[in-house]
Write a structure and sequence with these properties.
The chain contains eleven helices and 35 strands. By secondary structure, the protein is an alpha+beta fold. It has three domains: 85 residues, Immunoglobulin-like (Sandwich); 201 residues, Jelly Rolls, CATH 2.60.120.200; 233 residues, TIM Barrel, CATH 3.20.20.80. Strands 8, 10, 11, 13, 18, 19, 20, 21 and 23 form a nine-stranded antiparallel β-sheet that branches. Strands 1, 3, 4, 7, 24, 25, 26 and 27 form an eight-stranded antiparallel β-sheet that branches. Strands 28-29-30-31-32-33-34-35 form an eight-stranded parallel beta barrel, surrounded by five helices. InterPro entries: DUF2341, GH18_Domain-Containing.
Length: 690
C-alpha cells in the first residue's frame, strides 16, 4: 500500500510540474493583438526622438480587440517601451492616428516596433507631453505660464476654458490683437501643429485675421515664418518670411476651405533638405503643395519660438472673433519623412530584439519595393502610407542582424548616434586617414577635438584640410598639458593661444574652433590661473568664423559659468575624473546636473564628454548611452550632443561583448523537468508491473 501511495505521489508531482511549466510558458500570451511595424528612414539623417504618425484603419488593425478608448495600446522596441499620444481614436469609423516617439533611427535604416493591445485592465498611458518636444492640451482655466507668454493690443485677450484656448480680437477697434508665443525655442527641422477653428463674433463675415508661425524675437521680428489666413472660411492664405533684413511676401496661394466653427489641423513644417531651407503647410495631415517654398535667402535657420495671433483689420470694420485652439504641439520634421509598414499578419506574442539596419548592407538586404509577395521573415508585408491620402510609399526590409555578420562591415557605432557627436584625437598621423575617415563616417562623428601636442599647429594643417574635405569640423584643444598653478602659466598660455590664432590667419585649413581645456587644483579653481583673460583674448582675435568653447573640469565652481558664458559659444562638460566611474545615463545626468543647469540658465549650450576608460564593455553599450542621453535631453535647448574623450581607447573596444548564456524563465526548471520526467516514467512502469 505504501509503495502504491509513493508511486501515485511521484506521478502527481510529475503532472504538477508539467502543468506549472505550461502555465509559465503561457504567462506572456495574454495579449489579444500583437503587430510588427517597420519604420524606414528616408532623409539620410540620423533621427533622435523623432515622432512618427501611425495611421490605423480596418486594413491593418482590428478595433474590436482593443479597449473602447484605446487605453490598452502599447508600443515597444526591443525591451524599451515607447512614448506615444493618441491624436484621434474612432473605433466606429475604424480610424485612428497615434504619434509614437522613436528614440533613434539610423540614417537610411530601419527599426521594428511591436504594437500590442487587448489588456482590458490596462490604464491609459497616452501622453502628448512625453511624446512631443512641446505640447499643450490647454487643460485648466488659464494659460500655462511655464509654456507660453502672451501679449495683446487694444481689446485683444487670451482666454482658456473647458480645454480650449481662445486667441481673440473681440472688440471693434483698429489693430486689436492678441498673441501667445512659446517660452521655448526650436531648431529648424521642426513642425508646429495646431488643432484650431476660426470663429466670427462681429457683423463682418470676414472675421479676424489669423496667424500661426515661428518667430525669434517678438519685439524686432528679425526672423519669422508667418502663415496668415483671412476672410470668410479662411479663403486667402499667404506666407510672409524674414531672414534678418531680407523679407518675402506671397499673396493668395491657396484656400483653407473650412467653414467657420469647424475644427481642422494646421501644420507648418520648417526644415532643411539638400542644403536648402524650406517651409510647407499641411491641412489635416495632407500637404498643400501650392504652399511649398524654398529659399536660403528668405528662410532663416536660427532657433525660433512658435506663436499664434488674432487681429482685427486696420479699417476697424466689425470683423471681431477669435482663433479657438484645442491643442498645439511641436514635433521634429525632415524631408522626406520616415515611412511606415505593417506586417500583414499578427505575430507571435514575444518581444523581438530591437533591430536597426543601416545603409551598408549586403545585396540580400537591399530595399524591396512594395508588392503583394514581399515578405519579412516569411510574413507578407503590407505598406501603409504616413498620410492617409498617400498611396505609394517605398518599404525597406531588414533581416536578422546575425545573418549579416559576415557581410556587413563593422561600424564603430553599430546601433546609435546623436545629431552632434565628437571624439578627441591626439597625434592623428598615427592612423591611416582613409581608414580613420571611414570609421568616423560609419560612426556619424562630425566633430573632432584635436589635442595640441606641442605649440606647432602647422604639423596638423594637412589633417585639418583632409577632415574639412570629408565634411568634419576640427577644434584645437589647448592647455591640456599646462600646469595652471605655475607662476608663468598665464604668459605661456597666451603665447600658445597666439600661435594657434596666427596659424588660423595664415593657414589653408584653419581650425573651426578653439577649445580651452580648464583645470582645477585641489578641487578649487582659486589655486589655478584666471582663465577669463584667455577667453577674452581668443574672442578678440579669433573672428566670427571660429567658435570658442570651454572644457569644464570636475569640481569646477559652476557659478563661474555665468562669467565665462558671454565669451564662449558652448561648453564641454567633462563627465569623468570624478569619484566613481560614470557609465550609466542616471549617473552622468546626476554628475553634470549642476553644470548643465548653469549653462541652461545663461542660455548657452553644452556637449557632455564621457570617458571610455570608466568600465564600458563595448562600443554597443556606449552608443546605448549616447541614445539615452540624447533622449533624456531631447527638450533641452542647452544640450548639443555627446563626445568621447579618447579615440584610442574607444577603438580598442569590441563592437559587442560576448553575451552571457541565456537563462531560462524559471531557474533550474529544465533540470527539474528532466528529473521528474524520469521519475514519472519509472513510476508508471512500477504501476503496470503491480
Amino acid at each position: 500500500m505504501k509503495k502504491r501511495l509513493l508511486t501515485y505521489g511521484i506521478v502527481s508531482i510529475f503532472f504538477l510540474v508539467l502543468i506549472t511549466g505550461f502555465a509559465l510558458a503561457s504567462t506572456n500570451d495574454t495579449d489579444v493583438c500583437s503587430r510588427e511595424i517597420t519604420i524606414t528612414e528616408n532623409s539620410g539623417k540620423n533621427l533622435t526622438g523623432y515622432q512618427v504618425p501611425i495611421y490605423l484603419n480596418s486594413s491593418n488593425f482590428n478595433f474590436s480587440q482593443a479597449n473602447e478608448d484605446g487605453s490598452d495600446l502599447r508600443f515597444s522596441s526591443g525591451s524599451r517601451s515607447l512614448n506615444y499620444w493618441i491624436e484621434t481614436w474612432d473605433p466606429e469609423a475604424e480610424k485612428a492616428l497615434i504619434w509614437v516617439r522613436i528614440p533613434f533611427l539610423l540614417a537610411n535604416g530601419n527599426i521594428t516596433l511591436l504594437m500590442k493591445c487587448g489588456d482590458s485592465e490596462a490604464t491609459a498611458v497616452s501622453s502628448g507631453e512625453d511624446t512631443f518636444d512641446f505640447f499643450d492640451g490647454f487643460e485648466g482655466d488659464k494659460l500655462q505660464s511655464f509654456l507660453w507668454r502672451s501679449e495683446s493690443a487694444g481689446g485683444g485677450i487670451v482666454e482658456v476654458k473647458n480645454g480650449i484656448c481662445n486667441v481673440s480680437a473681440p472688440k471693434v477697434h483698429a489693430y486689436d490683437s492678441s498673441m501667445i508665443y512659446s517660452k521655448a525655442s526650436f531648431d529648424i527641422n521642426s513642425m508646429f501643429v495646431v488643432k484650431r477653428m476660426k470663429v466670427t463674433t462681429g457683423k463682418d463675415e470676414r472675421g479676424p485675421l489669423l496667424r500661426q508661425g515661428f518667430i525669434d524675437q517678438i519685439s524686432s521680428k528679425k526672423n519669422e515664418i508667418q502663415h496668415e489666413t483671412e476672410f470668410a472660411n479662411e479663403t486667402r492664405v499667404r506666407w510672409e518670411t524674414s531672414n534678418r533684413k531680407e523679407r518675402y511676401n506671397s499673396f493668395d496661394l491657396t484656400n483653407v476651405r473650412v467653414p467657420e466653427g469647424e475644427w481642422y489641423t494646421s501644420e507648418i513644417a520648417w526644415y532643411e533638405e539638400n542644403d536648402n531651407r524650406s517651409i510647407a503647410w499641411f491641412k489635416d495631415g495632407v500637404r498643400d503643395t501650392k504652399m511649398d517654398y524654398t529659399s536660403n535667402e528668405y528662410v532663416t535657420n536660427i532657433p525660433m519660438h512658435v506663436y499664434l495671433y488674432a487681429a482685427s483689420y486696420s479699417d476697424a470694420s466689425k470683423n471681431t472673433g477669435y482663433m479657438a485652439v484645442d491643442y498645439a504641439f511641436v514635433r521634429k520634421f525632415v524631408g522626406p519623412e520616415p515611412t511606415v509598414a505593417f506586417a500583414s499578419a499578427q505575430v507571435e506574442d514575444e518581444t523581438p530584439e530591437e533591430t536597426i539596419s543601416g545603409s551598408e548592407t549586403s545585396a540580400e538586404n537591399e530595399t524591396i519595393s512594395g508588392s503583394e509577395n514581399s515578405t519579412e521573415n516569411g510574413t507578407p508585408v503590407s505598406e501603409v502610407p504616413v498620410s492617409e491620402e498617400s498611396s505609394e510609399i517605398p518599404v525597406q526590409m531588414e533581416d536578422n542582424q546575425s545573418e549579416n555578420a559576415t557581410t556587413t562591415p563593422e561600424t564603430l557605432f553599430p546601433r546609435y548616434s546623436v545629431d552632434v557627436s565628437g571624439i578627441k584625437l591626439s597625434s592623428p598621423y598615427r592612423f591611416d586617414f582613409s581608414a580613420l575617415s571611414k570609421d568616423f563616417d560609419s560612426s556619424r562623428i562630425d566633430t573632432i577635438f584635436l589635442s595640441m601636442n606641442g605649440g606647432d599647429a602647422w604639423q596638423y594643417e594637412r589633417f585639418v584640410k583632409m577632415a574639412h574635405e570629408e565634411g568634419m569640423t576640427v577644434h584645437a584643444v589647448l592647455f591640456e598639458e599646462i600646469d595652471c598653478t605655475e607662476a608663468g602659466a598665464m604668459n605661456s598660455s597666451l603665447a600658445s593661444l597666439g600661435a594657434i590664432l596666427d596659424y588660423n590667419e595664415k593657414s589653408l585649413a584653419p581650425f573651426d574652433g578653439i577649445n580651452i581645456y580648464m583645470k582645477t587644483f585641489n578641487n578649487s579653481e582659486e589655486d589655478c590661473m584666471d582663465y577669463v583673460p584667455l577667453f577674452e583674448a581668443a574672442g578678440d582675435k579669433a573672428g566670427d568664423k571660429v567658435s570658442i568653447s570651454a572644457s569644464l573640469p570636475p569640481g569646477y565652481d559652476a557659478s563661474n559659468v555665468e562669467e565665462i558664458a558671454p565669451l564662449v559659444d558652448f561648453f564641454v562638460v567633462r563627465a569623468y575624473g570624478r569619484e566613481n566611474n560614470l557609465t550609466s545615463e542616471s549617473d552622468i545626468v546626476d554628475a553634470v546636473a549642476l553644470e548643465m543647469g548653469e549653462i541652461r540658465g545663461v542660455n548657452s549650450k553644452g556637449i557632455i564628454e564621457i570617458s571610455v576608460d570608466e568600465g564600458f564593455e563595448d562600443k554597443y553599450s556606449i552608443q546605448n548611452l549616447f541614445a539615452t542621453l540624447a533622449e533624456y535631453y531631447t527638450n533641452d535647448s542647452a544640450f548639443m550632443g555627446v563626445s568621447i574623450s579618447s579615440y584610442d581607447t574607444y577603438k580598442a573596444l569590441p563592437v559587442k561583448a560576448e553575451p552571457d548564456e541565456e537563462k531560462s524563465a524559471l531557474p533550474g526548471f529544465e533540470t527539474l523537468s528532466v528529473l521528474f520526467a524520469g521519475l514519472g516514467a519509472f513510476a508508471l512502469l512500477k504501476m503496470r508491473k503491480n
